[in-house]
Every structure is written in structure tokens, then in C-alpha cells.
């Protein structure tokens, strides 16, 4: 089962892409979202605890906007080298167990090679939003099309 990974420089585009994926039948168990959430601060990770529930609208603004409420299980984590992030979907559980390995280590669980995981970690550190979708072979083209249609900077299949 391929995992499609896209990066977005716009949180609005990422939010619209996730909504379109859900409308197309992809579930919360198939969609992951990761973004920095500095809460309007400049990379200061004070005040972010492990597993903080953000689905009740307690996201602190920052890069995510409406993304935190889109998927069940959204939570805040402080990732060394990146700072505070919001993670939702299957990747959230992997990251909470692999905080010391950083985002790149958590992406390995989604089938992302380590070198590409490091690339995506760098993109999130720079402020981009990562959206990953696990899709059956027959759904991969549809997911790719949706991600591109909603302004992904790039889409890769792993």
C-alpha cells in the first residue's frame, strides 16, 4: 500500500486538500498531517506537552489554522531540532513514541526512506505542512490528483 507524501507552503491549501481527501472517502486512519505550531512565537517550544489534545479547538494558531480540528487525535509534540509541532493521523502515534528520533524517524513507520524523511523534517522545520496519505493501489492516483489540485509543492509516492 503506497504512502503519498505532499508538502504545502500554505496551510489553507493543505486544509483544503485534507478536506477533499476526506470527501473522496479517505479516513482519518489514512491521512496524516504534520506542521510546526509556534503559536505566534519564534520557534520557542515552551509550554508544549506530550499528547496535548488539540481537537477541541485549543490549537494556538501558528501555521495550522483549521488543520488541527480536521483529523481525530491531533496532538502537540515538541520535536528536538524542530520545536513544537502538531501531528494528526497515524503519524501522531508514531511520533509520540519516537520523539528523540525526530520527525524523520517517525516517517519510517509510514514507509518513508530515512533520507527522504530527513528532507521532510527539514521542510516542516522551515514552516511547510506535510500531508501523507496511505492509499490502496487503485486509490493512489486519486490521492495524487487531489494533493496536486490543491496546491501541493510536490507529491511523492513511497
Task: Give a topology summary.
Blueprint: E1 3-8, H1 11-23, E2 31-36, E3 52-53, E4 75-79, E5 83-88, H2 90-97, H3 102-108, H4 114-125, E6 129-134, H5 137-149, E7 154-157
Antiparallel strand pairs: 1-6, 1-7, 2-5, 2-6, 3-4, 4-5
Helix pairs in contact: 1-5, 2-3, 3-4
Based on secondary structure, the structural category is: alpha+beta
* Residues in helix, %: 25-40%
Largest sheet: 7 strands, antiparallel
Widest beta sheet: strand line-up: 3-4-5-2-6-1-7
- Assembly type of the shown chains? single chain
Mean pLDDT: 76
Shape: globular
β-strand amount: 15-25%
The span between the termini is 9 Å
Outline of this structure?
By secondary structure, the protein is an alpha+beta fold. It contains five helices and seven strands. A seven-stranded antiparallel beta sheet has the order 3-4-5-2-6-1-7, with helices on both faces.
Describe it for me?
The protein is of the alpha+beta class and 158 residues long. The protein has one domain. Helix content is 34%, strand content 22%. It is built from five helices and seven strands; from the N terminus they run E-H-E-E-E-E-H-H-H-E-H-E. A seven-stranded antiparallel β-sheet has the order 3-4-5-2-6-1-7, with helices on both faces. It is globular.
